[in-house]
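Researcher: Let's do a round of design. I'm pasting the structure tokens now; please hold your answer until I've finished.
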């Protein structure tokens, strides 16, 4: 059950508190009274308020002082303030120091209609904020559950797979001569299906490892990482001639290990999908759009239908047949997670037979997203 939003009313004169409480009785909220600034500050630490109605002229601590102290505490900093005052000339002071707009003013004697409509606005604001916060929380929980599920399922699937793989190999090697050709062919198919499943599980585990990694941010030279990856690709496949172009000083802020995984997946794709290009070319670079640096990995390979670009980043989505290009379809899902961990965005541009470009941003000012711990 969701509780009713609370409004804090602060006034040193009890009759005023009673009058305000009576007026607010028409709204769907709970009122909490404070007879002094100190009381108000204490209550602000104990409850979550949708707004506070704050009398300006109070002995000991006036309303401005209460608001100033409330703003200094992270727990009460964002509570909107409606000052209640008889002094028209203080208007400028009232709004001083509030950039958020979460401040308003009411003049004495109070007009019931104005009071109710102002409080109503803050109640609405509070309700939508709370709804949004609940939705984000539920979303985070679902994602963490899914990751934990993914991890444990992948982990547990390994166990029955191991004997399946091992025994079919033993039968093939030690007893294969007792089988006819068809028997051996079927057994070989069992073994290779088990191998494929093993690779799938590997990929799933890789995906969940990225989500569970604790990001460790620092300065990262993307061009150096890219050159290292390209060197590895060349040594694994020395027969291929691929022209590699990299932008100078592609530095970024992020987790070097995660960014290497992302670049490696993008470059492996570029390498793979240019296999049929007569003059294969892969480029890593960056452009500046407004205040944002956009990094890109571009190739002149087979490309893909741009209408399907949104599917790419989902696990196991592939736009090419495995008979044409091998893979399980997990690479870009990993890249997307890495970029998302950095608070960035990723998107792709392509045309069939005219190559593909993958763009991503890595905001530097924002701390890396923390990763929900999941148990196994
Ligand atoms: N550079 C590219 N050019 C053309 N198509 C691409 C490119 N990169 C990705 N794609 C398309 O997006 C799909 C998903 O890519 P992703 O990297 O996730 O999977 P994969 O490379 O097929 O397999 P994996 O990376 O798991 O080995 C690919 O199957 C391909 O259809
Ligand atoms: Mg890939």
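Researcher: That's everything. Go ahead.
Model: Designed sequence:
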């Amino acid at each position: 059950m969701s509780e009713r939003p609370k409004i804090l009313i602060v006034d040193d004169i009890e009759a005023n508190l009673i009058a305000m409480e009576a007026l607010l009785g028409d709204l769907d909220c709970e009122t909490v009274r404070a007879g002094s600034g100190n009381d108000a500050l204490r209550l602000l630490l104990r409850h979550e308020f949708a707004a506070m109605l704050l009398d300006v002229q109070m002995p000991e601590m006036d309303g401005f002082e209460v608001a100033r102290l409330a703003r200094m505490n992270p727990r009460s900093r964002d509570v909107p303030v409606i000052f209640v005052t008889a002094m028209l000339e203080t208007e400028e002071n009232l709004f001083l120091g509030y950039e958020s707009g979460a401040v308003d003013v009411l003049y004495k004697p109070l007009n019931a209609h104005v009071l109710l409509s102002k409080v109503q606005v803050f109640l609405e604001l509070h309700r939508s904020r709370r709804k949004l916060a609940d939705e984000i929380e539920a979303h985070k929980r679902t994602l963490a559950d899914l990751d934990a599920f993914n991890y444990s399922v992948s982990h547990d699937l390994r166990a029955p797979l191991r004997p399946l793989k091992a025994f079919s190999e033993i039968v093939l090697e030690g007893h294969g001569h007792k089988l006819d050709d068809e028997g051996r062919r079927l057994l070989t198919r069992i073994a290779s299906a088990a191998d494929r499943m093993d690779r799938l599980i590997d990929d799933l585990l890789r995906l969940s490892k990225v989500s569970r990694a604790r990001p460790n941010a620092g300065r990262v030279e993307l061009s150096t990482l890219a050159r290292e990856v390209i060197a590895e690709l060349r040594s694994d496949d020395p027969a291929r001639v691929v022209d590699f172009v990299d932008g100078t000083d592609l530095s970024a802020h992020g987790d070097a290990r995660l960014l290497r995984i992302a670049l490696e997946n993008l470059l492996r794709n570029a390498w793979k999908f240019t296999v049929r290009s007569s003059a294969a070319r892969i480029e890593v670079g960056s452009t500046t759009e407004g205040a944002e640096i956009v990094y890109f990995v571009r190739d002149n390979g087979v490309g893909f239908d741009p209408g399907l670009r949104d599917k790419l980043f989902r696990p196991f989505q592939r736009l090419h047949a495995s008979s044409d290009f091998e893979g399980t379809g997990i690479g870009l899902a990993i890249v997307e997670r890495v970029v998302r961990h950095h608070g960035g965005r990723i998107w792709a541009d392509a045309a069939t037979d005219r190559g593909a470009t993958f763009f991503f941003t890595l905001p530097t000012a924002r701390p890396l997203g923390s990763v929900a711990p999941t148990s196994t």
